[in-house]
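wait is this the right file?? whatever heres the structure
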């Protein structure tokens, strides 16, 4: 086998393998959840971990920590409660209620207390009061809300925030904040002394998707890579067939020299004494002389 064809074989095989590997990679990506979508199962709050063992104040919170059951102790800053425009699980417009829980280290974590209907409360003063003194809070750790979550009115009055995200809450709270927030499952003591005011409805943690949501862009990329891989193999096979056919033609035409001019038998070299192969020249003349 010629050396250049050996190199071409290796190159074609590697190109085909790369195409199929990239196609499989894109196929796997097509089944991955969208960026920012929570896929972790909801943990049991009875087996909650201490917040400081899961996340450090100010540290980046990876999506893999979402729905982790955590617990921590601290005191609510009762004068810093905020309303965040949000859609309820039933699709109604209202507000998420969020308050800072200040730990003994002086850092704070945002606690999502629940959701209230916008027709019953649109300012923090209309809410049921927070417990005073030291409180033990248990819930599910959640990543900062994205800009596409919920809805944002054209004008945000005082006492409201755009979303539950430390980058925005720092404008209202003078604390070093944890990157995520706690979606409240329970607290001890449960309520403040005053029983008046609107009590937030508890919001369940997000459940991971049960079915595969296909990413059609990645799926189309996977199909393109497979087509490229097949094209490489077809091109390789066609070239090999042409090369093989050319080798057979060369061997068939180079086995024996031609018999005469133009490869035709019976040329001048085939006659004795160099005589021409023309019969008319071989006959004697009528007079008997040569």
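ok assuming it is, sequence goes like this
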């Amino acid at each position: 086998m010629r050396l250049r064809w050996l190199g071409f074989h290796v190159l074609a095989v590697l190109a085909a393998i790369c195409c199929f590997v990239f196609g499989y990679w894109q196929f796997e990506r097509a089944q991955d959840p969208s960026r920012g979508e929570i896929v972790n199962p909801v943990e049991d709050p009875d087996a909650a971990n201490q917040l400081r063992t899961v996340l450090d104040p100010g540290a980046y919170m990876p999506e893999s920590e979402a729905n982790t059951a955590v617990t921590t102790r601290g005191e609510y800053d009762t004068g810093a409660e905020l309303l965040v425009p949000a859609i309820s699980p039933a699709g109604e417009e209202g507000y998420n209620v969020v308050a800072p829980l200040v730990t003994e280290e002086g850092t704070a974590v945002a606690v999502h207390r629940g959701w209230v209907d916008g027709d019953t409360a649109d300012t923090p003063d209309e809410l049921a009061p927070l417990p005073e003194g030291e409180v033990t809070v248990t819930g599910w750790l959640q990543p900062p809300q994205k800009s596409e979550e919920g809805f944002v009115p054209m004008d945000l009055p005082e006492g409201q925030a755009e979303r539950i995200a430390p980058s925005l809450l720092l404008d209202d709270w003078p604390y070093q904040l944890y990157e995520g927030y706690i979606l409240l499952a329970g607290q001890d003591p449960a309520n403040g002394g005053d029983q008046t005011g609107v009590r937030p409805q508890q919001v369940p943690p997000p459940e991971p998707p049960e079915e595969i949501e296909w990413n059609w862009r990645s799926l189309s990329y996977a199909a393109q890579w497979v087509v490229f891989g097949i094209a490489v193999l077809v091109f390789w096979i066609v070239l090999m067939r042409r090369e093989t056919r050319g080798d057979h033609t060369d061997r068939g035409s180079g086995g024996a020299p031609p018999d005469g001019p133009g490869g035709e038998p019976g040329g001048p070299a085939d006659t004795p004494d160099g005589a021409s192969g023309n019969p008319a020249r071989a006959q004697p003349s009528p007079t008997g002389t040569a």
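The two ends are 62 Å apart (CA to CA). so i think its the right one actually
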